[in-house]
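=== Structure Prediction Worksheet ===
Name of assembly: unnamed complex
Input type: mixed (protein and possibly other molecules)
Chain count: three
Listed entries:
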Amino acid sequence: MVDIISVATQGQGLYEFTEEIHRLVRRSGVQDGLCSLLIQHTSASLTIQENADPSAQHDLENWLNRLVPEGDPLYTHLSEGRDDMPAHIKAALTATTLSLPIHKGRLMLGAWQGVFCWEHRHHHQLRQIVVHIG
Amino acid sequence: MVDIISVATQGQGLYEFTEEIHRLVRRSGVQDGLCSLLIQHTSASLTIQENADPSAQHDLENWLNRLVPEGDPLYTHLSEGRDDMPAHIKAALTATTLSLPIHKGRLMLGAWQGVFCWEHRHHHQLRQIVVHIG
Amino acid sequence: MVDIISVATQGQGLYEFTEEIHRLVRRSGVQDGLCSLLIQHTSASLTIQENADPSAQHDLENWLNRLVPEGDPLYTHLSEGRDDMPAHIKAALTATTLSLPIHKGRLMLGAWQGVFCWEHRHHHQLRQIVVHIG
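=== Predicted Assembly ===
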């Protein structure tokens, strides 16, 4: 089964969509299998992180922004905006695809793990994540 | 088939568990398929690295510790200890899931590749890695 | 189905092999499924990046070379050359495996996404990428 999850982002940050994945897994009826995710963009990415304390997400975001700042004189790819090249680098350093085992009909995430779309651009975007369950 | 591999860690570093995966693949009887791994934690991660020379693992560990030091004034997520926020960042920069093809009943790893649990915290931990083979 | 794609690299940089994957997917006849990739090396890696504008690839390469320079006095793993330890670190920060959903017989990559072998060493290499389609 292949489906798409759309995540509407309003600027940089982590957007959790774990619940949408749980829903697709339940609907699929798959008991033992694999749920694979691909984000169809190169200026946003995927990450599995702690979803209990928002301060962890906040620090992740700030740390990565400091590591990959805008306006670095190294960049030559400038035509799509100041936040575009840093976004590509951040995407390369994090994940574009993830594979999540399913057992007895449920996603085998750890107790504190959530799945996030990590938006690296400032403008509002509609991010598409392809989900394969089988 | 879904199984769990437990890795007991004693502080920061890389802990190889390639042999445990080989064992599960053999036991599954799968000839052509996929072995997918998910570590159920956000302060430890997965990596595939050279397993021949321990100096490579040592340098990896030291390099990442220098890139993501403890005590950075940027961190606000401090409630779980000085090593917790750096651990989340390191996990985001490395892998939480991996997918390994199986051919003729064996994992298709390269000659020098080993699969490691990368512990980013100081205290002893029991890390759970979910393995799906199919 | 398990196959191997070989990518001949001539020094550091990103080498696209999206077309070779499309070809294997078509040949497999799989309509809804998953295409999983594993690069069998620890001094080269995989990445999904924008394939429209070469300046993005150029900046990615230069940025990562600045983050992980050769000749860092931290390195103790020196026996395989000055570019070897930085290559292992770069591989750990990017991807070794990828999972790409297939729908209606085609890879579900985004419009601007290409799949690349990221060579981190200077010498010519023949890099092997294992492809599982199922």
